[in-house]
Amino acid sequence: MRELIQSALADADPDGATRWRAISLLQKRGDQETFDEAKRLCSSDTANERILGVDILGQLGRPGLPFAGRSVPVLRAIAADERDPMVLYSVLIAFGHLKDPRALPSVIELSAHEDPRVRYGAAYALPNVLGCPPDRDGLDALSRLAKDSDADVAEWAALGLALTCGEGLTD
C-alpha cells in the first residue's frame, strides 16, 4: 500500500495515469488499512496529500463497496473546514462518485463558492446526490449554477439539469 501511495504522490498531475492507476489498485485492495491511510492523508499539512486521500475515499466509498457508508461523513467534515479550492474540487468529485444524498447539504453550500473550480465540482456532484425525486434546494442550486458566469460551470450544470434522475451522467 505504501508504494502505491508514494507512486500516486509522485505523479504531479492530479489526473495523471500513474496516480489513477495507483488509486485504482488501492480501491481493489478495499481494506481497512487503505481506508485508514486515506483518512490520514486527508488530514495532512499538504494539499497534494489531502487531495490524494479524498480521491481514494471517493473510490473506496462507491456504492456497493465496503466503505460506501463511511466515506461520506469523512468527506463532509473536510468540506466544512477545507480552504484549498483544489481539495474542495476533489471532495465534490468524490461526492459525485459516491452518489450518496447525505452529501447534498455540503454540495449545496459549496455551489456558491467564489472559485469556479469548486462550483464546477458542485455542478458535477449535484445531479448525483439530488435523490429521486430530486431535492428542491439541490435543484435550485443546480439551476443557479446553470446561469454561472463561468461557461464550463454553466454548461455542466445545464447538462446535469437535463439528465436529473436519468442515467449516463455519473461517470
Automatic annotation (TrEMBL):
<dbReference type="InterPro" id="IPR011989">
    <property type="entry name" value="ARM-like"/>
</dbReference>
<dbReference type="Pfam" id="PF13646">
    <property type="entry name" value="HEAT_2"/>
</dbReference>
<protein>
    <submittedName>
        <fullName>HEAT repeat-containing protein</fullName>
    </submittedName>
</protein>
<dbReference type="InterPro" id="IPR004155">
    <property type="entry name" value="PBS_lyase_HEAT"/>
</dbReference>
<dbReference type="InterPro" id="IPR016024">
    <property type="entry name" value="ARM-type_fold"/>
</dbReference>
